[in-house]
Design a protein that fits this description.
It is a single chain. The protein is an alpha+beta fold. Among the domains are: 53 residues; 283 residues, Choline/Carnitine o-acyltransferase, domain 2 (Chloramphenicol Acetyltransferase, 2-Layer Sandwich). It is 47% helix and 13% strand. It has 24 helices and 20 strands. The strands form five sheets. The protein has an eight-stranded mixed beta sheet, sandwiched between helices. The longest helix is centred in the first third of the chain and has 32 residues. The chain is globular, with a radius of gyration of 29 Å. This is carnitine O-palmitoyltransferase. It is found in: Mitochondrion outer membrane. Pfam families: Carn_acyltransf, CPT_N. Pathway: Lipid metabolism; fatty acid beta-oxidation.
Length: 751
C-alpha cells in the first residue's frame, strides 16, 4: 500500500555484503515538522497556563513591581518596612560569600518584589471572585439598575480590562452553593401544587416534612461536607449517574442533533461541503487549544477541553470518557467502509481543497465492505453491556483494536451519507421531519454514537451533527456548530462551480481503509435490532414558526423564553387536557464547572392563565393579560433562581445519591426522582449572532437542533429563537403512545 510505504522513514535489508540502509528524507522531514508542531503546542500550553495563573494581572506586571521597588530603594526609602533586610539575613551562606553586599540587597529586593507580586495577584483574584459571586443583577428589571449593580459593573470592567483567555475566569468563579434543605422542599412543594389533587398534595407535604425532620438534615450535612472540598458538588455525580451509568442505548435516549441552514445549502458537492466543514471544525479546535476564543462576560465560555479527540467507551457497570491531547486525523464512514483520513501533513493543516480531494477519493473508492464491517456501528447504538462484552472479546488486540483505536482517537467522526436531506421537493415539511430523524439515529449503524460528536454530510451537500451528551451540554456544541456554519459559508467559501478554494497536492497518500476481523456478527445484529426498534418508534416534527418572533414579543416587555414556555403549557393543555411536570434546562455557568439545572416551568401562575384562557367562562382581555404577565414574571424568576444555584432538582438528586451511599431509603426522594417529565424542553441559545449577517443574508437561518422524548408518553421540545421574526421548534414523541403526536402538538402552539 502506498500510504504504508510513505509512513516508513527508513528501510533496511540484510545482504551477504552487510546491511543495506535506505533513508527516506521526505518521511524524515515530515517527522521533523510534526515534532516542531508538537513542541510549539506544548510551549503554547505552558504560556497559557502562566497567563491564566496570574489573571487578572499580566506576567509583565512582575517587572513593573520590581522596577517600582528598586526605584523607591534608590530614593533611600524602604518600601518593605524592613522585610528586605530580614530576607537578606536569611540568604544561604554560599550567597553571602559569593555576592557583594549590594548584590545581596538586590537579590533580596527581587525576592521581596516577587512575593509582593504574588500577594497582589492573590488579592486581585480574591476581589474578582467576590465580584463574580454577586448575582443580584440578574433579578433587576430591564432599565432599572440599582447603584450597587452599577458600581459592580464598573469594578468588574476594571478588573477584567485585560483581554482574557478562554479559561481565564475559571478559577475565579465561585463554587455552587448548597441550598438550605427547607428552601428546596418549600420550592418543590410549590412546583407540584398545580399537578396534585388536595389529598395527594397533603400526602406529599407530610412526606416532605418527615424527610426534613429526620433523614434530610443528615444527608444535607454530608452534602455540605462534599461542597467544601469538591469544585462542584453536582457535576461529577450528574455526569456519572445520569449519563455514564445508564445501560440503555445512548442513541435517541441521550444523544442529540444539530441541523444545517434552513433555506441555503452552500454547495451541492458532497466532498466540497465535507472539506470546508472539516476545516472549520479543526480551526475551531485550534482556537480552543490556543484559548483564543473569547469567554462570555460574567461566566466562563461554554467550550470544553473534551470536545475533540474524545470518545465514550462502554463498561459493564459504567462507561468511561477517554480524551487524547491531539489527533491529526478524522474517522470517515461511507457505504459500510471505515477510513482514517489524515488532515495534517508535515505539521500543516491540509487546505479545504485538499481535504475535498481526499474525501472524493473515499467517495470514488469502489471496494466493498469487509465481512461484518458495514453494520459495526450498531454496537454503539444498542445496549451498553453487550457492546462492552463484545469490545473485550473481539476488540482488545490485533487488527480490530488498531482500527477501533483509529476511530476512538480521531478528532471526530464523519459520515458521508448516500441520502439527500433538507427542506426540499414537493413535501418540504415531511422532508424536514425525515431530516431530523436521520440526524437523530440515521440507519442505526452509519454513525458512531460514542464519539463526542459525529458530522453527517449528505449526498446533496446538506450537513448536520449528532452529539454525545455526557461530556458537555447542548450550548457547548451549539457554539461549535455556529462557528462551523459561519466559517464554512462566509469565510472559507466556494468557487463558482461549488468546490473548495485552495490548491491541491496530488501526492497526498490515499485515506487508509480500516481493517476488521469480525468472527461473529450475532451481537451486531442483536444491537441493531434493539436500536432499530427504538428508532422506528421516534416521531419527529420540525416546525419553523415565522408569524412573529422575539421582536414582537419584546415590544410587549415580556421575556421571549417565558412567552414560549407559557405557550408550550397552553399547547400541552389543549393536546392532553391537563398539565404535567415540565423540564426546562437552564445553565449554571455562573459557577465553577457548572452544567445545568431544571426550571419547573409548570407553575401555579401559568396554570391559572391557561385555565382562564381555556375555561368555559370567558375571561376579559384585561384579566388574561394580567394573568399572563404574572405567569411570565414567575417563569423569569424561576429561571433566575435556577441560574444562581437556588434550583430544586440537582439538590434533591445529590441528596438521593448520598442516601444510596449510606444505604438508607427515603420514600420522599424515591417518589420525587421517579416522577416522569412528560414535557421536556430546552432552548438552543444563539451565542455568536455577530457571525451571521441576517440583514444582508436573511436566508442563512439556522434550524437549531433537537432530542428524543424523555418519557414514553411525553414530548421532547427544543426551540431556537432566530433573529427577530422566527422561532424554530423541534418536537419528538413516540409512536407507541397513542396520546402523543408530534405534529398535532405543535399545531396547538400556533393556534
Amino acid at each position: 500500500m502506498a500510504e504504508a510505504h510513505q509512513a516508513v522513514a527508513f528501510q533496511f535489508t540484510i545482504t551477504p555484503e552487510g546491511i543495506d540502509l535506505q533513508l527516506s528524507y521526505q518521511a524524515l522531514n515530515q517527522i521533523y515538522l510534526s515534532g516542531v508542531r508538537s513542541w510549539k503546542k506544548r510551549v503554547s500550553r505552558i504560556r497559557n497556563r502562566v497567563i491564566k495563573g496570574v489573571y487578572p494581572a499580566s506576567p509583565s506586571s512582575w517587572l513593573f513591581v520590581v522596577i517600582a521597588i528598586l526605584a523607591t530603594m534608590y530614593m533611600r526609602s524602604d518600601p518593605s518596612m524592613g522585610l528586605i533586610a530580614k530576607i537578606q539575613q536569611h540568604l544561604p551562606l554560599s550567597l553571602h560569600v559569593s555576592l557583594s553586599a549590594q548584590g545581596q540587597t538586590m537579590l533580596s529586593a527581587l525576592v521581596f518584589s516577587t512575593l509582593l507580586w504574588f500577594s497582589l495577584i492573590l488579592a486581585l483574584r480574591f476581589c474578582l471572585k467576590l465580584l463574580l459571586s454577586y448575582h443580584q443583577w440578574i433579578f433587576e428589571q430591564h432599565g432599572r439598575i440599582s447603584n450597587t449593580t452599577k458600581v459592580w459593573v464598573t469594578l468588574l470592567r476594571l478588573l477584567s480590562s485585560r483581554k482574557p483567555l478562554l479559561y481565564s475566569y475559571q478559577t475565579s468563579l465561585p463554587h455552587l452553593p448548597v441550598p438550605a434543605i427547607k428552601d428546596t422542599l418549600s420550592r418543590y412543594l410549590e412546583s407540584v401544587r398545580p399537578l396534585l389533587t388536595d389529598p395527594k398534595f397533603k400526602r406529599m407535604t407530610e412526606l416532605a416534612n418527615q424527610f426534613e425532620s429526620n433523614l434530610g438534615n443528615r444527608l444535607q450535612r454530608y452534602l455540605k461536607l462534599k461542597a467544601l472540598w469538591a469544585t462542584n458538588y453536582v457535576s461529577d455525580w450528574w455526569e456519572e449517574y445520569i449519563y455514564l451509568r445508564s445501560r440503555s442505548p445512548i442513541m435517541v435516549n441521550s444523544n442529540y442533533y444539530g441541523m444545517d441552514f434552513l433555506y441555503v445549502t452552500p454547495t451541492p458537492v458532497q466532498a466540497a461541503r465535507a472539506g470546508n466543514t472539516i476545516t472549520a471544525l479543526l480551526l475551531y479546535r485550534r482556537k480552543v487549544n490556543r484559548e483564543e476564543l473569547k469567554p462570555v462576560r460574567l461566566h466562563v465560555h461554554p467550550s470544553c477541553e473534551r470536545m475533540f479527540n474524545t470518545t465514550r467507551t462502554p463498561g459493564t457497570e459504567t462507561d468511561v470518557l477517554q480524551h487524547w491531547q491531539d489527533s491529526e486525523f478524522v474517522a470517515v464512514y461511507h457505504k459500510g467502509r471505515y477510513f482514517r483520513l489524515w488532515v495534517y501533513r508535515a505539521g500543516r493543516l491540509l487546505s479545504p481543497r485538499e481535504i475535498e480531494y481526499q474525501v472524493q477519493r473515499i467517495l470514488d473508492d469502489p471496494s466493498p465492505p469487509q465481512p461484518g464491517e458495514e453494520k459495526l456501528g450498531a454496537l454503539t447504538a444498542g445496549d451498553r453491556i453487550p457492546w462492552s462484552q463484545m469490545r473485550k472479546q473481539y476488540f482488545s488486540s490485533g487488527v480490530n483494536k488498531r482500527s477501533l483505536d483509529a476511530i476512538e482517537r480521531a478528532a471526530f467522526f464523519v459520515t458521508l451519507d448516500n441520502e439527500e436531506q433538507g427542506m426540499r421537493g414537493e413535501d418540504p415539511a415531511g422532508n424536514l421531519d425525515r431530516y431530523a430523524k436521520s440526524l437523530l439515529h440515521g440507519k442505526c449503524y452509519d454513525r458512531w454514537f460514542d464519539k463526542s460528536f459525529s458530522i453527517v454530510i449528505y449526498k446533496n451537500g446538506k450537513s448536520g451533527l449528532n452529539a454525545e451528551h455526557s461530556w458537555a451540554d447542548a450550548p457547548t456544541v451549539a457554539h461549535l456548530w455556529e462557528y462551523t456554519l459561519a466559517t464554512d459559508a462566509f469565510q472559507l467559501g466556494y468557487t463558482e462551480d461549488g468546490h473548495c478554494k485552495g490548491e491541491v497536492d496530488r501526492s497526498l497518500p490515499h485515506p487508509q481503509r480500516l481493517l476488521w476481523d469480525i468472527p461473529s456478527e450475532a451481537q451486531v445484529h442483536s444491537s441493531l435490532a434493539v436500536a432499530q426498534a427504538l428508532a422506528d418508534d421516534v416521531d419527529c416534527h420540525v416546525f419553523p414558526f415565522s408569524e412573529f418572533g422575539k421582536g414582537r414579543i419584546k415590544k410587549l416587555r415580556i421575556s421571549p423564553d417565558a412567552f414560549i414556555q407559557i405557550g408550550l403549557q397552553l399547547a400541552y393543555y389543549r393536546d392532553r387536557g391537563g398539565f404535567c411536570l415540565t423540564y426546562e434546562a437552564s445553565m449554571t455557568r455562573l459557577f465553577r464547572e457548572g452544567r445545568t439545572e431544571t426550571v419547573r416551568s409548570c407553575s401555579n401562575e401559568s396554570c391559572a392563565f391557561v385555565k382562564a384562557l381555556e375555561g368555559s367562562s370567558a375571561c376579559s382581555p384585561e384579566g388574561s393579560q394580567c394573568l399572563f404577565k404574572l405567569a411570565s414574571e414567575r417563569h423569569q424568576n424561576l429561571y433566575r433562581m435556577a441560574m444562581t444555584g437556588a434550583g430544586i432538582d440537582r439538590h434533591l438528586f445529590c441528596l438521593y445519591v448520598v442516601s444510596k451511599y449510606l444505604g438508607v431509603e427515603s420514600p420522599f426522594l424515591k417518589e420525587v426522582l421517579s416522577e416522569p417529565w412528560r414535557l421536556s424542553t430546552s432552548q438552543t441559545p444563539v451565542q455568536q449572532i455577530e457571525l451571521f449577517d441576517l440583514k444582508n443574508h436573511p436566508d442563512y437561518i439556522s434550524l437549531g437542533g433537537g432530542f428524543g422524548p424523555v418519557a414514553d408518553d411525553g414530548y421532547g421540545v427544543s426551540y431556537i429563537i432566530v433573529g427577530e421574526d422566527m422561532i424554530n421548534f423541534h418536537v419528538s414523541s413516540k409512536y407507541s403512545c397513542s396520546e402523543t403526536v408530534s405534529k398535532t402538538s405543535v399545531t396547538f402552539i400556533s393556534v
